[in-house]
Amino acid sequence: MKTAEGHYQSINKGLMVLVGVGREDTESDADWLAAKITSMRIFDDEAGVMNNSLQDVSGELLVVSQFTLHARTKKGNRPSYLEAALPEKSVPLYDYFVRQLNDRTSHPVATGVFGAHMEVELVNDGPVTIVMDTHHKT
Predict the structure, then answer these.
(1) Which positions are catalytic?
(2) Domains in the chain, please, with CATH?
């Protein structure tokens, strides 16, 4: 991942996490999400079965802020982002989330630059893509 300002981050085996902070999100949501991301058994074991977690494979994380995940497209042709948190809430909560991930992993968490234009490349080995919403925990 590279920003227009030249900030560059990359990881090897692991997960790229696109994070959209919503207006109703809390630190409790960030705690739950960090625990879930690092514990989900989504990496193959020796038998090719998704039975290992990020922690089990000593995987790395790249976390990128992405407010457009909150796009609502029900009306008209222009997405609405009213459900995305404003920067004064989303920046501290994003930073808190990254700290929670750092506390749960063996590698430093790589991040994008909040609010920056970024070129993001992904090699999806699987493909496995999972959408998680902290407001649908059960």
Answers:
(1) 68
(2) 2-119 (3.50.80.10)
